Amino acid sequence: MPPLASNTSKMPSPDNAPPLETALPPLVVIIGPTGVGKTALALELAARLDGEIISADSRQFYRGMDIGTAKATLGERQGIPHHLIDFLNPDQPYSLAEFQADVIRLAGGITERGRCALLVGGTGQYVRAVTEGWIIPEQAADPRLRLVLEKWGAELGPRSLHARLAILDPEAARNIEPDNLRRTVRALEVTFLTGRPFSSQRQVGSPKCRALLIGLILPRPELYAHIDARIGQMLAGGLLDEMRSLLVAGYPADLPAFSAIGYAEMVQVLAGSLTLEAARMQMQKRTRTFVRQQANWFKPDDPNIHWLSPGGEAAHEAIKLVEQFLGDAPTREDHDPHKPRAAPKRV
Hints:
Elements: E1 26-31, H1 38-48, E2 51-55, H2 74-77, E3 82-83, H3 96-112, E4 116-120, H4 124-131, E5 134-135, H5 143-156, H6 158-168, H7 170-174, H8 181-194, E6 203-204, E7 210-216, H9 220-236, H10 239-248, H11 263-271, H12 276-297, E8 305-308, H13 314-326
Parallel strand pairs: 1-4, 1-7, 2-3, 2-4, 7-8
Antiparallel strand pairs: 5-6
Helix pairs in contact: 1-13, 3-4, 5-6, 5-8, 6-8, 9-12, 10-11, 11-12
């Protein structure tokens, strides 16, 4: 696995871990459904609060998957350090446990540099693993079993394999997108190897960071309109060509990473089994299903989440929340929360 974004700091050993919650590295977490505007808010907060962004979008980890994952462009990222974006090839594995450890390490390093750590994304399982300090099952992968499950999934289709998971472990199935073959395979793998449901093996431990959760929310009709417009922009912006380039580069079409919304449809378009218009409709349908699943992780009545409406005063309100969270002090002496400011230079 290629190295992560530059950061050589290490977290304290368990024996030297900070005894008080306030000694834990602070982490501002921006969550919400896909298409709601998390990236735009994160970029503005990072520019105005001297922040660094850590991605919690499991599809943005991969190089070459830019349009369909709605990554911030290189121009938008200029001057704002980003982590856990574009650090894996589509065929490289990356576990939830690795993500959890990397986020805690990165948050510690960002805090040591005197900057604001922002964890941004809508992959609920990844966010909760960090903020709730999950103790993740350590069951090692079984390459032969995984190969059989992946082959089974390729033959039956991700949804059929997901339906079998729902029989064995309904709770795990509720928290996994039906088209997410990688996570479905992992849940089945652990269940078969241990003889116990995957969901029963997830435990909540002690959080290794002090988190502020800021959520963006829109009425569903308005959110769906945003999503439909974004899907149109992806298709007009070259999503089909992006998928074609990945296949030309030698990546097989049945990679788990390509089960992501948009990429799976483009594979079918290139194979001639789906028209571009049918692909658009399928993407819209799958995204709506995904939004409903995201709501299971981040509920509007969760008292630990500060919900804001995107646009307007959202950035101003978020900055006030962050400054209070960090100790009622601006990140820089010359900070004015009412005025946009130039993005900080990359460290």
